[in-house]
Specification:
Blueprint (H helix, E strand, L loop, with lengths): L5 H13 L6 E5 L5 H8 L4 E6 L2 H13 L4 E5 L2 H7 L2 E6 L25 H11 E12 L4 H10 L3 E11 L2 H4 L2 H14 L13 E10 L6
Parallel strand pairs: 1-2, 1-4, 2-3, 4-5
Antiparallel strand pairs: 5-7, 6-7
The structure holds S-adenosylmethionine.
Length: 220
């Protein structure tokens, strides 16, 4: 089970700051323990749906909702289920986003070689899952590619901006991948024709970023 940590708290804070409309219909995608669903229900959402593909997460989120007497619907599933229940006024998501070089793989946080195996499909679908005037908040690491997320959301017709960021020390998973992450950073700097620092020693922190995507009321 993914225990709520800095990214979960940063997203919960961003949800509060966003001033979600009272009575909103909210989706917590990749709910884990249900922390964001609980945040939304407590903040006055009219309906909260929490989705996760892991049976253990679904069980835990249900227990957390039930023990707090919060009317949260927790379902097992991914984007297919989200589509059946759309549109939403607000979507919050802390998806798996850690770049994984191969080998041992943990679906709670690992997300393919560039960290985008869940973020990419989510970015493509967010504009379609939102009601006009609705918004989404997604958290991920700088190593996952903030510009790519912004571009994908904009390509889908959403207005997208960074609304919160926090620099945090590497946890054990990131620390174990320092060399791989350094390589990723240098590769993307090379793509962008940016000079890399030859003697960069260790990287020990990452910036965690919350991105907001707004679906305009009117298109065209
Ligand atoms: C980083 S944890 C976030 C948990 C919680 N939202 C939080 O902020 O603490 C990511 C969660 O996404 C779930 N997950 C992974 N891939 C998914 C997918 N394709 N669709 C739905 N949930 C997924 C995992 O089971 C895990 O519980």
């Amino acid at each position: 089970m993914y225990r709520p940590q800095e990214d979960s708290w940063l997203l919960a804070q961003a949800y509060g700051s966003a001033g979600p409309p009272p009575g909103a219909k909210v989706l917590d995608f990749c709910t884990g323990t249900g922390i964001l669903a609980v945040t939304a229900a407590r903040a006055g959402a009219e309906s909260v749906t929490a989705l996760d593909i892991a049976p253990r997460a679904v069980f835990t989120a249900r227990l957390n909702a039930w023990s707090r007497r919060l009317p949260i619907r927790v379902l097992r599933g991914g984007l297919g289920v989200a589509h059946r229940l759309a549109p939403f006024d607000v979507i919050v998501s802390n998806p798996p986003y850690v770049p994984a070089p191969g080998g041992a793989y943990d679906p709670r946080w690992d997300a393919g070689p560039n960290g985008r195996s869940v973020v990419d499909p989510l970015c493509r679908e967010i504009p379609k899952l939102l009601r006009p005037g609705g918004f989404a908040l997604v958290v991920h690491s700088e190593f996952t590619g903030v510009d790519t997320t912004l571009e994908m959301l904009r390509a889908g017709g959403a207005k997208a901006t960074v609304v919160a960021r926090e620099r945090i020390p590497f946890g054990p998973v990131m620390r174990s991948r320092t060399e791989y992450l350094k390589q990723l950073r240098n590769d993307s700097a090379a793509d962008a024709s940016v000079l890399t620092v030859e003697n960069e020693t260790e990287i020990e922190t990452e910036e965690v970023v919350v991105i907001r995507a707004d679906r305009p009321e009117h298109t065209g």
